[in-house]
């Protein structure tokens, strides 16, 4: 005869309720380098305004443009838009010389959300995350890995990590989650 045992405690841990880490689906990504005077031409071709301030994000038609430097943007879009972006940039080249490099396979993205998300990221990110406003993103480091950190909301972040560093970063995130769960 078998017995069934039931428990009154929750299946998810406190950190599980306070913290969520998930790998995001792949997307088309491009590194765009263009002189700021030519940025409006490329923005029009790509269907969004390229922001002029470092850390600023523009969104349109499911595409995002993040200003990483005075002449550098990260363009993210659904994978289905990849060919259209390449074609639009190619067509705009005569009017505005630029460099558009596809980097889609270079990075993996993690969504980190919940009331403990900022606490988790602070274990290996030297930036003052209180100064990163929702709707902004920055290039920074997580431990020794270069990352792009997006703040999607008060308790929601996205971490873009080079594929070669992803196992290291994910292991640190999991260790941090365990420490937060244990109250360390």
Counted beta strands:
10
Class by SSE composition: alpha+beta
What sort of overall outline do the alpha carbons produce when their principal axes are compared?
elongated
Q: What's the CATH C level? A: Alpha Beta
Please state how the strands of the largest beta sheet are arranged side by side.
Answer: 1-7-10-9-8
Proportion of residues in extended strands: 25-35%
CATH topology: Gyrase A, domain 2
DSSP helix count?
5
Rg, nearest Å: 20 Å
Give an account of the 3D structure:
This protein has 184 residues and is α+β, with helices and mostly antiparallel strands. The protein has a single domain (16-182), classed as Gyrase A, domain 2, CATH 3.30.1360.120. 25% of the residues lie in helices and 34% in strands. It contains 5 helices and 10 strands; from the N terminus they run αββαβββαββαβββα. It has helices spanning 14-18, 39-46, 82-92, 117-121, 166-182; strands at 20-23, 28-34, 57-60, 63-69, 72-77, 98-102, 107-113, 136-142, 145-153, 156-162. A 5-stranded antiparallel β-sheet has the order 1-7-10-9-8. Helix 2 (39-46) packs antiparallel against helix 3. The longest helix is centred in the C-terminal third of the chain and has 17 residues, at 166-182. Residues 1-15 have low confidence and may be disordered.
């Amino acid at each position: 005869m078998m017995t069934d045992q039931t428990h009154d405690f929750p299946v998810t841990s406190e950190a599980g309720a306070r913290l969520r880490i998930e790998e995001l689906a792949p997307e088309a990504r491009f590194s765009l380098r263009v002189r700021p005077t030519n940025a409006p031409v490329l923005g029009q071709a790509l269907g969004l305004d390229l922001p002029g301030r470092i850390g600023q994000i523009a969104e349109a038609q499911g595409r995002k443009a993040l200003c990483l430097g005075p002449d550098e943007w990260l363009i993210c879009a659904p994978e289905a838009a990849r060919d259209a972006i390449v074609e639009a940039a190619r067509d705009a080249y005569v009017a505005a010389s630029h460099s558009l490099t596809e980097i889609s396979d270079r990075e993996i993205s993690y969504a980190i959300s919940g009331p403990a998300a900022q606490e988790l990221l602070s274990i290996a990110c030297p930036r003052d995350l209180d100064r990163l406003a929702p709707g902004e993103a920055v290039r920074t480091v997580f431990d020794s890995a270069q990352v792009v950190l997006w703040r999607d909301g008060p308790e929601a972040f996205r971490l873009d990590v080079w594929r070669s560093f992803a196992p290291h970063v994910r292991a640190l995130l999991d260790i941090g989650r365990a420490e937060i769960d244990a109250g360390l």
